[in-house]
Amino acid sequence: MSSNLPEPTDVSTPPDTPPGSQRRLSGISPWNEWALATFLFCSTVVCVSVAGLFYGTGDFRFFASLWAIFLRPRIIIYGLLFSIPLISILLAHELGHFFACRYYGMNCTPPYFIPLPISIAGTMGAFIRIRSPFPNKRALFDIGVAGPLAGFVFVVPFLYFGISLSQVVPKGSFPPGAPSFGEPLIFRLLGAFILGYSPDRQDMLAHPIAMAAWVGLLATSLNLLPIWQLDGGHIAYAVLGRERQRQFSLAGLAFLILLSIWQWRSPSYLLFAVLLLVFGWRARFYHPSTLFDSEPIGRGRVIVGVLALLILLFCFIPNPISFGY
């Protein structure tokens, strides 16, 4: 995820610069930013590893997992089977943004991970803060799409390998009240191809690596939604323009809210929709303009934009998590 919060003193391309000529910045982040990023990264690795015990042992009690690690330290290997793939996916995503910013000479922070100790993933993802305004729509598109594409390249092999280590069991084998995780289209297609998985008559006991890929798919799909300053919002602005991107933002937000109301017993997207509503309201859901908005992005980027849309459709999970009632 990238966040563009421009500051007047950090302009990579002055207004009088001719289109196509951009002044590059060294953009070396201060030591304290890298120190904070390192601390958050290490904290997130710990939290994600503990969360991984949920999928390795089947025990979804956070403090019980901590106690189990204290009694049997070697049990953390189950957590690492989850945390290493997931951290790799999230890091690839953020480094895609980071190096794209460096390519365009834009000032940005290192990736900041967000640890979330008591949760099914151990993290709320990661982000970078982009201080410079985007010089044109080409830069906006490239930086926006670089993260999801890089993350997706890592997701697919982890998903394939994780599903190959998973097991299929007869439908209804899980105890009442056990959490059930929704399956995106790519998950079902690979499950059918590798294991002959049929959701109508079977359940899948997913390996921790497969669950890490599942979280990666969820993060990728959320970031690709064409809402405000999500990665998908950057892509939509570059391809469709300011007004149409705002319309997609409002439509996407309404979709998330209606989806949560429809699934009122487990409204997985409601909090995410509320956060987008709060942060987008101040700007009336308009995406910030680039310095040279009139420059075209070219046919090649439009094709990549269609590819990003397909990735969104294959990764989106209508009901990420539910519980038996």
Question: What secondary-structure arrangement, pairings included, does this model have?
Answer:
Layout: E1 2-4, H1 31-57, H2 62-71, H3 76-103, E2 112-115, E3 123-130, H4 137-164, E4 167-170, E5 179-181, H5 185-195, E6 202-205, H6 208-223, H7 231-240, H8 242-262, H9 270-281, H10 299-315, E7 321-323
Parallel strand pairs: 1-3
Antiparallel strand pairs: 2-3, 4-6, 5-7
Helix pairs in contact: 1-3, 3-4, 3-6, 4-5, 4-6, 4-7, 4-10, 6-10, 7-8, 7-10, 8-9
Name the features:
mainly alpha, two-stranded antiparallel ribbon, three-stranded mixed β-sheet, about 325 residues, globular, 10 helices, about 10% strand
What fraction, in percent, of the residue positions are helical? Answer: 55-70%
Average pLDDT, to the nearest integer? 87
Shape: globular
Count of discrete structural domains: 1
* Rg calc: 21 Å
Strand order of the largest sheet: 1-3-2
What is the N-to-C order of secondary-structure elements (H for helix, E for strand)?
Answer: EHHHEEHEEHEHHHHHE
Please report the distance between the alpha carbons of the first and last residues.
34 Å
Uncertain stretches of 5 or more adjacent residues? 5-27
Please count the beta strands (DSSP E, at least 2 residues each): 7
Query: Structural class of the helix and strand makeup?
Result: mainly alpha
As a percent range, the share of strand residues is 5-15%
Q: Tally the helices: what do you get?
A: 10
What's the story with the biggest beta sheet? 3 strands, mixed
